[in-house]
């Protein structure tokens, strides 16, 4: 992914108001992010537990979506798989994240995703998901990256339609 600015991030959001986009917590470390290793920019809101954001190139534009984490049932320790990068995590490493559709008719789209939205780093082995986090595959790294990019694009397509 190419480096993007705070202004570009705020302007990219499609499922929130301009006021919400203006107030959201943009990461302060944009200049040190490993852009060459990112397929999308994703982060959790430090001031609002359960809220996350994702910004990705979608076609020739940037699309940003505000995500909400669905409530979890306490006491369930299980392994879950991210639907973007297919990394498995135990405990709360994968969450159901939902995004309001752009149309604003009250519908939302959800997916089970790495809670920290660090899919790109898990794929490339830059961040560990723990034992059994990455299943052995015969795909090359480029093929895994392409698969993840398709999964992200499909999610964004559902949000923006």
Describe this protein's structure.
This protein is an alpha+beta fold and 161 residues long. It has helices at residues 6-12, 18-23, 119-123, 141-160; strands at 41-44, 51-58, 61-69, 79-81, 88-90, 94-100, 108-114. The protein has one domain (6-160). A 5-stranded antiparallel sheet has the order 1-2-3-6-7.
Number of strands: 7
Through-space gap between termini: 23 Å
What is the tally of helical segments?
4
Question: If you compute it from the alpha carbons, what radius of gyration comes out, rounded to the nearest whole angstrom?
Answer: 15 Å
Strand order of the largest sheet: 1-2-3-6-7
Q: Which series of helices and strands comes N to C?
A: HHEEEEEEEHH
Number of separate domains = 1
Judged by helices, strands and strand pairing, the structural class is alpha+beta
* Structural shape: globular
Low-confidence segments, given as residue ranges, are none
What would the average pLDDT be, to the nearest integer? Answer: 91
Instruction: Assign a percent range to the helix content.
Output: 10-25%
Strand coverage percent: 25-35%
Largest sheet: 5 strands, antiparallel
List the helices and strands and how they pair.
Layout: H1 6-12, H2 18-23, E1 41-44, E2 51-58, E3 61-69, E4 79-81, E5 88-90, E6 94-100, E7 108-114, H3 119-123, H4 141-160
Antiparallel strand pairs: 1-2, 2-3, 3-6, 4-5, 6-7
Task: Summarize it.
The protein is α+β, with helices and mostly antiparallel strands. It contains 4 helices and 7 strands.
